[in-house]
Amino acid sequence: MNARFELTGPQTDIASYPRWTQDMVADCADARQAIVSHAMWSAMCAATLDAETTRHFMVGVWPVIERFPGYMSHSLLKTRYGRSPGDDLARRWLVRNIRVEQNHAEYWLNWAESAGVSREEVLGGEPPKGSQALAAWCEDVTRNDSLAAGIAATNYAVEGATGDWSQIVYDSQTYAESLPITGRKAGLRWLQLHAAYDDTHPWEALEIVCTLLGGNPPVDQVEHIRECVRRSYVSMSITLDRCMDGLASVRRLSDQAA
Ligand SMILES: [Fe+2]
Q1: Which InterPro entries does the entry mention (predicted)?
Q2: Is 226 in a helix, a strand, or coil?
Q3: Which of 141, 168, 204, 246 is the most buried (most CB within 10 A)?
Q4: How many CB atoms lie under 10 A from the CB of residue 124?
Q5: 43 Cα to the center of ligand 1, angstroms
């Protein structure tokens, strides 16, 4: 028998969630930790990331930033008002939060610009080879999988891990000071907004997933959600790895035009 889920405590405390959710989060912790301890952030925090890798990062991650409201709209299309408490919760949350994402693409461009990567380069540059693992996965899971799987993979896992690394970089005074003083505040805005301190979005997403699946869903459903969350973390690590590799196949926009 699957029990209906309701939060039993603070939304931002994993103990308030069903046993299966706590186990899922624990099972995926190693993959999430691999993102948090990625060399990208230590290089940013030490202000030692070279210009080429900075460009790879800004251009390679951009498609996920640009498409994020699109992923959420794929999820929104799957909801049916009145079908279940989970559908209603997801629908209300998605409608509200697609709007919240409105300015985030612009803030990413500001960050890139501040870090020395032009808007034209981000919009038109070719991403590093293999760096589109995360974008392709987010597109696929939100288009083709269940509502719960898509929200778990993107709004819980991708936003959650992004909160972790954004906080690491945003906390670094050395990084902040490596950006030109002019435009620095605007340049740091994206990181500031996504740093985990106050960002409750991933927790809200987790609550939606639990409301959709219930307190005790079938084993195969739990296993599937776990797979999707882990795959988001692994795809994010692959994307970061490929941005870090600095593959020679990457051409600058200016080279393409030549
Ligand atoms: Fe965002």
Answers
A1: Haem_Oase-like_multi-hlx (IPR016084)
A2: helix
A3: 141
A4: 12
A5: 23
Percentage of the chain surpassing pLDDT 90?
Answer: 89
Instruction: Count CA atoms closer than 13 A to 65's CA, side-chain side.
Output: 22
pLDDT single digits (tens) 87-140:
999 999 999 999 988 899 999 999 999 999 999 999 999 999 999 999 999 999
Query: Could you give all domains of the chain from N- to C-terminal order, each with its CATH number?
Result: 24-257 (1.20.910.10)
Q: Which residues contact 58 (CB under 8 A, 6 or more apart)?
A: 108, 111, 112, 115, 117, 121, 122
Q: What is the 162 CA–ligand 1 centroid distance (Å)?
A: 9
DSSP H stretches of helix in 81-158: 85-100, 104-114, 119-124, 133-144, 147-151
pLDDT of residue 131: 96
pLDDT of 184:
97
> What Cα–Cα distance (Å) separates residue 140 from each residue in 31, 46, 67, 72, 136?
20, 35, 12, 12, 6
Interval between CA 3 and ligand 1 midpoint (Å): 33
